[in-house]
Structure to design on (140 residues):
């Protein structure tokens, strides 16, 4: 019986070695399914398809920066951040002046949860200043 089982599996293995004939349409469908999702193109390589992504046309507004970088903490109070619109929480900060607020926004505030640029490392200093202005205007 062992020899019969061995022979059966040997026959099964041998029969699976034959190539499957695919139609051109089936082959094309398989190639489409396994094609890469994208490609890597290094700067300066002109053989890659498509135009390079363009940079933004200008600085983002204070509201845009707030919504993309600041909102996580300044809408919830996470890490002790003063909430946008909380006049009492902002009063002492606003009294120190814009230069102090700008410096804290750009460089972070030691001893607090405020990290440099609120973690928005692709924000310019001017965009951070605009976000500070937005929060100050909404918290007076």
């Amino acid at each position: 019986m062992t020899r019969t089982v061995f022979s059966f599996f040997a026959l099964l293995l041998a029969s699976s070695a034959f190539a499957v004939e695919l139609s051109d349409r089936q082959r094309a469908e398989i190639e489409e399914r396994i094609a890469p999702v994208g490609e890597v193109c290094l700067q300066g390589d002109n053989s890659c398809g498509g135009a390079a992504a363009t940079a933004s046309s200008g600085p983002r507004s204070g509201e845009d920066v707030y919504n993309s970088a600041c909102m996580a903490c300044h809408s919830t109070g996470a890490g002790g951040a003063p909430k946008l619109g909380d006049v009492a929480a902002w009063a002492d900060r606003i009294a120190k002046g814009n230069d102090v607020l700008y410096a804290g926004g750009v460089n972070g505030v030691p001893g607090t949860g405020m990290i440099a640029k609120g973690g928005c490392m692709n924000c310019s200093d001017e965009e951070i200043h605009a976000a500070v202005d937005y929060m100050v205007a909404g918290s007076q």
In short: The first helix runs from residue 2 to 16.
